[in-house]
Queue: 2 jobs
Job 1
Amino acid sequence: MTRRASGRVEGVVQGVGFRPYVYRLAREEGLAGYVLNDERGVLLDVEGDPAAVERFVARLPAEAPPLASIESVAWASLPPTGGRLFRILESARGGEPDAPVAADAATCAACLGELFDPGDRRHRYPFVNCTDCGPRFTIVRGVPYDRPLTTMAGFVMCPACQAEYDDPADRRFHAQPNACPVCGPTVRLGEATGDAALHLAATALLDGEIVAVKGLGGYHLACRADDEQAVARLRARKHREDRPFALMARDVATARTLVELGEAEARLLAGHERPIVLAPRRAGAPVAAAVAPRNAELGVMLPYSPLHHLLAHDTATTLVMTSGNVSDEPIAYRDDDARERLAGIADHVLLHDRPIHTRTDDSVVRAVGGRPLMLRRSRGHVPAALALPLAAPGLLACGAELKSTFCVAKGARAWVGHHIGDLRNEETLRSFTEGVAHFEELFAVSPEVVAHDLHPDYLSTTYALAREGVEHVAVQHHHAHLAAVLAEHGERGPALGAIYDGTGYGTDGTVWGGELLAGDLEGFDRAGALWPVRLPGGDRAVRQPWRMACAWLVAAQDSEPAPLPGIAPRTWQAVAQLARTGLAAPLTTSMGRLFDAVAALCGVRTEVTYEGQAAVELEAISDRSERGAYPLDVADGVLDARPTVLAVADDVAAGVEPAVVGARFHRAVAQATAQACAEIAGARGLDTVVLSGGVWQNRLLLELTLALLRDGGLRVLVPERLPPNDGAISFGQAAVAAALSPPPR
Ligand code: ZN
Ligand code: ZN
Ligand code: FE
């Protein structure tokens, strides 16, 4: 008496050691059959003793390999064939590829052991990997995920590697990037290769020099983190005035000397995604001041490639590891381009000959209230699928413009692309169009619907509208923020969204950014907003927060406001004039700009070198023990911050510390938000509040508001797997477009 069962496994099951896992499991249970990769995932067939088949069915999802993520297993009973063997069959080709590709994963413990084992044939080999770890998405050129369709295609495996690759019992069975010093990629620094190159790099770093290091998804610029001169030189050469640099610490214990790590932070830091984790900076952290000027946090990550592990080991010091680019350009990832662009910045370039197919920045995450809050979702996470709460036709969503991502979707799955960045740059725009084409091929999505932002001038909108033969869906920016959070939590609404960010095109053509939207995936109603003020000089007001201080003072008082210290009276008066007349000064309800105004009034910052800098620094100085709050009136959903701004100006004039002013302001926004949400939710019978938009990257504001909303009995949804910022817009657009489309056949 035998039984036969056929299983169809979907999810991230290719390139993660799933077939050898199935093979071993079947052998342990004494079952015959086969397993193969196909376009939908893994197809398997087992037969033998009915009790063994039953155990196999139960064990399969429960003991899956670490990098696998099973979405579903569908079983069917079939008549037994009498077979005795269990085999791994060749990948089935043809049809439309649909099998997800895995994300890149940090070096596993077994590979790390080999890396530092003098007796191992991969001792100190910077490309050691196996089915549990190593490059994936960054080297994939197509599907199915097999070596010829990766950037490892040019390396022919030596007999020893080939034997591992062919042995179902081996940890490297069908490990596509499998390599060793005999047959695989090589590191190089100038004329030196291999260990000699690594030695030169480590020596240069210890001497305070700057080394460009080719990583998984692009080049980093590295220097020692405790060397004031080295960091200052890197900052000067990179023209990246104040934006913080990320650090690479050798291990969790070293990271603890730099930042305060709670349980959630430590878990994020050590996870196989290996993101940059933002955590409160420790007093006395051995880090140069120029690493993160005027920031209360440091961004720390652990080594994630064997090359990083070797550098960390050989230098035994914390390194700055910032993306290899000049200020706002995208990270360099092609060797010729990197040599050219990084030549003026790095003293040395440590490169290797395994090509990077897709540029992928480091992901950035922070923990809030013990939960992860993604700030940039890229390497280690992309291209993992995200579930949509409803079925979508083939669709493409083009995102916003500054922290741009795209998203393709079909059925109940969406794939959000890697962080692309500011599209107003020729090279990023090219990454965007190439990335879209790559994802459409990888996930076999032929868009019938193309979603885009309502903003007519975004380059992503221009791209979307140029796609012919599709249905276009325009999605309002803050509606997309709301929808993204609902959808990532598997919900469709309705809910009340407090969506606070810098800029988004409103349905009335003005600049929105402090919005209370009542709605669901299909639509919304603007239930409230911040008091609108002028944005004097448009984009210049974003770079010069003192302009927003001027605009808010003009809105709040009848008399002529006095110029802020450091601003020439004539310039100030000209801007005040713009704010009064509205000439070259569109109306805005932007919450981000209110934070800018207050930061400028406090003397924290009158000009910024990156978006959100003023708010980041205002949060950093705010005294968390302060209990006071400024008035911020709420009436009919309108958050009137005019009395707030006047109270700030009075306190500043009276000599109150900026730390106290900042705290009272944060508390005012949190209280007004909670009050407005309670009123609107009560009036409309809503019980759920969504907090999203870039302003919620502010930990202090988020924690204060969350506590008040929960005390008021409201359920609160915050972003976790996608960022509160515009990196989530494409996913939100996809959710809205799916909800507005007729259900797919
Ligand atoms: Zn491994
Ligand atoms: Zn080899
Ligand atoms: Fe936004």
Job 2
Amino acid sequence: MLRVDPDRLRADFDALAAIGGTAAGGVNRPTFGDAHLAARAWFLERAAAAGLEAHVDAAGNHSAVLPAAAAGAPTLLLGSHLDSVLDGGRFDGGLGVVAALEALRTVQDARLELPVALEAIDFTDEEGTLVGLLGSWAVTGALSPEVLRAPRGGRDALLAGLARVGLAEERLADARREPGSLAGYLELHIEQGPVLERKGVEIGIVTGIVGSRSFRIRFAGAAAHAGTTPMDVRRDAGLGAAAFVVGVRELVVRAYPGAVATVGNIRLEPGGFNVVPGLAHLALEFRSPDAAQLDALEAALVALAHGLADAHGLEVEIEPVGRWEPTSLDPAVRAAIERAAGALGLSTLELPSGAGHDAQALAAVTPSGMIFVPSRGGVSHRPDEYTAWEDCVNGANVLLGAALELGSSECPFQQ
Ligand code: GLV
Ligand code: MN
Ligand code: MN
């Protein structure tokens, strides 16, 4: 049975982790920052060094391609992302990209001729520094002008980022691929949660990915002197923000089982010791695997914000800045992953993903699947995110095995 070269994979993983590496052992590679661009350049160099074709599309997605023998053959995408959250871990996204590259090299070294092209792809801005799933949405044709008008990271940041790397907003959609040109999508990723470790299972087969919505919320009151303004006449925007954070938690815990909600950022203005805050800017995100529950929770959160604004004499503005739908992953791809793991003697468990992934975009246009490997302590989006190396190699071998099955002539998607 064909297997990846674990030493070559490790060398790549370590080299990548050093790009934007932090003292705490993680990486800091927000989209289009210096470290992110260096990681992307490194990826293309590694592809070229392996004799693979390297290219960048109109949405900045970076790819290494092992062409099929026959011209016009469909492409099986293997991917993930090289951007990170602020002060993130080394494994989130990076593992999937280096494993995809290694899978291509392994097939190439074995001189296997597949009826599909294999493409290792690093999608632009998966994490949402700017938009979230920017590159994968562009590939699937889901990147709409509305999304680009009010992106999660702010319109100015998006325009500055695109300008920095020479991408044109009006051309991003040119990255779209015809669904018929794709044979499927596979992604290896760390679980980022505790389930596999707790159950002692080696490989997770992802059943579906949660939906997620992001909102920017602004409470406006009146800035005032912190020493002379009596408590009962204040219109304190910070108080609205604090009450909202507490209220969000209470609401979700009480009435929305299976959902999660987070206020990930609060900025108060003017922001001094001796001034009652006149403005509070909040970043709200909530997730659920169930679209109807997301609708209900959205309505309840909006009502909560309005109710608290009234109670504290504030105005509130609520702006949607991101919407990612709950997604099921393809049963046939899941079965192929199961067989690939079984052939390697690895234990498996089907589980949903609470994190967002590019597979969420790809699943709308091509049969898609995800392979999870255990995360120590379920920790992720932190520098101490960790997956045992043996698990990383197992995941890469399952990725390779599933790709070989899906990319073989028996592949149901080729008919
Ligand atoms: C991406 O990792 C997300 O789930 O936010
Ligand atoms: Mn990720
Ligand atoms: Mn992430």
